[in-house]
TrEMBL record, chains A, B:
Residue ranges of the TM segments: 286-307, 313-339, 360-381, 387-413, 425-448
Keyword Cell membrane attached: yes
Name of the protein in question: Magnesium transporter MgtE
Job description of the protein: Acts as a magnesium transporter.
GO cellular component: plasma membrane
Organism this protein belongs to: Mucilaginibacter polytrichastri
Domain CBS, chain residue ranges per copy: 140-203, 204-260
Keywords from the UniProt entry: CBS domain, Cell membrane, Magnesium, Membrane, Metal-binding, Transmembrane, Transmembrane helix, Transport
Similarity comment: family membership: Belongs to the SLC41A transporter family.
């Protein structure tokens, strides 16, 4: 099986069915998985999406809405539905998904939606709406299988069947005491295999990992990945069980965080939607470019300072841009490796020191090799051995600076509690530009004139 | 709870226990989770690691070994163990993990290890060793809960208990026919809740997703993420069930792929180990830098061509570097957004066209804003309105080129079947360097002289 890609024939089939009657549309939609319909939605108009949601059975419709990209405004579709259809769909949604979608609406729209659904659902969703969406509380689902630790095997199994009636899938059963304080976790398999007279508290696994509701989602992702967990319980300060986070929600978080890393390191605001409008893109990128323009003037002022030299040795301008550019590229390499390493695990002081030392060495060697090539070119084209020496030294020096700054600046930022990825290549290349201009100009002034 | 970070006191405690006797070492190790010991291993010598594996109970030792970073050579530790301890540990490992670790050894070492373990385990591991490690076959675990579709509820439950005896956790039960051909999936919950006279084939879910063994792991990750799966069955060409891949293995794949993306876009070979040696880093990065040196000479030849102009207008060199540098940064921004977007989903022709159009617009607007700033600076510092106009036009033009190349080159590569991330900023900035030098020099020649 291959992952689903939209092709013209699928789209045409849906478009034709949209123009035909509802029965035909239902028949065609039946050929697709809910997540495939969600992907097809990217190419349909808001009106077409609404029409499709209206003819789909509520359970499929709810799956489609929960799989929809936030940019396609699933909240708005939900809001525009007939209140009865809307309630049916929300009832089918997991609480965490329902909360995510409803949170996209304006406050008065949220009220209107919540007023029309089942009282208990509304209470649960209202509670989840209070958590910041980037925290464990914002990610969690309040639907859990929760047993009192004092239940017998038989009562426990009955309770599991009762509670799982409305749940699609569950991974772990949580045991609590009378005040809902988490006592441990137990698997259905273990209850099932236990002897008849066993109580739940005899089966508990107590060395489990849990998180508090206000923990950042990135930390939750790191924990679940580190301990290979498929779900993790969420508790309040008194260890009362509030809900659980499942691995499928964490995969979305990981993709989000990885997107942010790659954008920040390239000087793009982390909030830029990948498929957002050009207005958003300008807003997200222009500030970085203007900061960089300021630093570029700084680097250019180095060149102004040596304006006399250039008049005498115009060829230096061409070489200087090569050395500055190579420094920028080497710095980007060192930066990418270091930022990625930091985001996968924390580095000790000794590891940080070794990283900087390694990048110093790499910069020196790569600088020397490229320096020799430039030296040979200078001999060949310009027949000037002294110019060759100047360029060799400048290239080596600038690539050492590139390695040192590319590694040490993100490490330093991390220690200062600042996101290391903001040490974007835009910032780092300021150093390599300045040094890349300064070294050849200064060395040439000293050695060639 | 916070994710585990190594601190000095933990390390000191372990080191002291290593110097004391085995009982003390066992007591201290008992305070840590297996995955925490695997993290602590990063700071211990190979001898210390072996000593710890030797005193740990086999089930914990196998967990530690399966969590160890590949760079710390878990295979070598396993190989150095006493054959009896080694067999115990391998028996505790999942087949997929055992295969990964054993595959790190030389062929004759692999034989030696496999000759000393249980016959059935050895056969399973030998079969897994034949798959490429980057494919579904290389990722899968052959330990699955597999039921004949013709079993009754009662027999099925007994069979599940029997088969799950040795399994840590399972998510899905696979139903097969007499020739092991996959018929569908069923959940324990559904078997459990079924009426007594129900047969497995009545409970089957048949619209499940599966993969063939030779599919690339990246494709598996995309499927599991797209369809929100916690596990996926792996089959051969005849749909015979070979094994299953679980979501925890996919998380590692996703992190690997994301690391590769961020490295490639920054001009680092995808194979560079983040914490590898300086020799590896030189090998991985030097080729890219040398390619870039070639393209830098190309850009510099533009400057050489206008050497006469520079002698008359030395100030142009400083401005030219600013315009080229800004182009490089804007191109990096457009590139990062486009590459990340492609790696998360495939773009249709219409979406690709819109992306290029958007980046054109963004480049034009960001170029014009930065162009106006440079124009003002040129008026202020150099009192030269015509120079200001030249710079404004050159900046706008170069940022348009930056947007166009940053978006269109990765899209083009993708359509040619080449990994779009190799359109690294190193390649893209060649364009912006050339145009960034050419535009101001050519416009200045035409308008100022």
């Amino acid at each position: 099986m291959q992952s689903f890609e939209i092709n013209k024939s699928d789209l045409l089939k849906i478009k034709n069915a949209l123009d035909a009657n509802d029965t035909e549309l239902q028949r065609v939609l039946g050929e697709y998985h809910a997540s495939e319909i969600a992907i097809l939605f990217e190419r349909l108009s808001p009106e077409e999406r609404e029409k499709i949601i209206n003819v789909l059975p509520s359970d499929i419709a709810s799956e489609v809405i929960s799989e929809m990209d936030e940019e396609n405004h699933p909240g708005q579709i939900l809001f525009n539905l007939h209140p009865e259809k809307r309630s049916e769909i929300i009832e089918e949604l997991d609480y965490d998904d329902a909360t995510d979608i409803i949170s996209q609406l304006e406050e008065h729209e949220q009220q209107q939606v919540l007023d029309h659904i089942d009282q208990e659902d509304a209470t649960n969703i209202r509670a989840l709406l209070t958590y910041d969406e980037d925290t464990a509380g914002g990610l969690m689902n309040t639907d859990v299988i929760k047993l009192n630790a004092n239940l017998s095997k038989k009562d426990a199994l009955e309770e599991v069947i009762r509670q799982s009636e409305e749940m699609e899938e569950f991974y772990t059963i949580y045991a609590v005491n009378d005040r809902d304080i988490l006592q441990g976790i137990v698997s259905l398999k273990d209850i099932f295999k236990a002897k008849p007279d066993v109580m739940i508290h005899d089966l508990l696994k107590t060395d489990y990992v849990f998180v508090k509701a206000e923990i950042d989602q990135e930390e939750v992702a790191r924990l679940m990945s580190q301990y290979n967990l498929t779900s993790i319980p969420v508790v309040n300060d008194h260890l009362k069980l509030l809900g659980r986070i499942t691995i499928d929600d964490i995969i979305d978080v990981m993709e989000e965080e990885n997107t942010e890393d790659i954008l920040k390191i390239s000087g793009v605001s982390e909030d830029e939607e990948l498929s957002g409008s050009w207005q958003d893109a300008v807003k997200s990128r222009l500030p970085w470019l203007i900061i960089n323009l300021g630093t570029a003037f700084l680097a250019a002022s180095v060149i102004r300072h040596f304006a006399g030299l250039e008049a005498k040795l115009p060829i230096i301008a061409a070489y200087m841009t090569i050395i500055a550019g190579m420094g920028g590229n080497a710095a980007t390499q060192a930066l990418a490796v270091t930022v990625r390493r930091i985001s996968l695990s924390d580095l000790s002081d000794a590891q940080a020191y070794n990283t900087v030392l390694k990048e110093f060495l790499v910069g020196m060697i790569n600088g020397a090799v490229n320096g020799i090539i430039v030296l040979i070119v200078a001999l060949w084209y310009d027949a000037n051995p002294m110019l060759g020496l100047v360029l060799f030294l400048a290239m080596t020096g600038n690539l050492i600076v590139a390695g040192l700054t590319g590694a040490s600046i993100p490490l330093l930022l991390k220690r200062l509690g600042i996101d290391p990825a903001v040490a974007s290549s835009i910032i780092i290349t300021t150093f390599t530009d300045c040094i890349g201009f300064l070294l050849p100009l200064w060395l040439a002034s000293a050695l060639l004139l």
